[in-house]
Amino acid sequence: MVNIYDNANQLAKDLQETEQFKDLKKSLENLKNNPESLDLYQRMDKLQQQILAAQNSGQPLSDEVRKEYQKINEEVQNNDELKDMITKEQALFQMINDVQQAMTKPIGDLYDDLKAK
Fold first, then answer.
1. Tens digit of each residue's pLDDT (9 = 90 or more) over 45-104
2. According to the 3-state scheme, what is the secondary structure of the chain?
3. Which domains does the chain have, with CATH numbers?
4. What is the pTM of this model?
């Protein structure tokens, strides 16, 4: 019998050997080594958490939060380390999305006969 959890753990190990993972890891190291970029990342992350909390609780975003988001977004566009990290992160998550689609395809296939034709 197949132990799917062993396969998942192996997939997690394999993920760390991909070019996309290694590229993101290197990009994050570069970001950590630049205090200005690291500070900007931390401010961006804190603001994103604040926005997500507001959205989850159904509260509208204040004008102050919207302005801060615009300001940080402009700063990110002018920061090479953050732009690189975001690009590398997107590439890794695209690969993960592709793998997830391959993994869930058999489930969708189970329902194919139920769909109206």
1. 999 999 999 999 999 988 999 999 999 999 999 999 999 999 999 999 999 999 999 999
2. CCCHHHHHHHHHHHHCCCHHHHHHHHHHHHHHCCHHHHHHHHHHHHHHHHHHHHHHCCCCCCHHHHHHHHHHHHHHHCCHHHHHHHHHHHHHHHHHHHHHHHHHHHHHHHHHHHCCC
3. 21-114 (1.20.1500.10)
4. 0.84
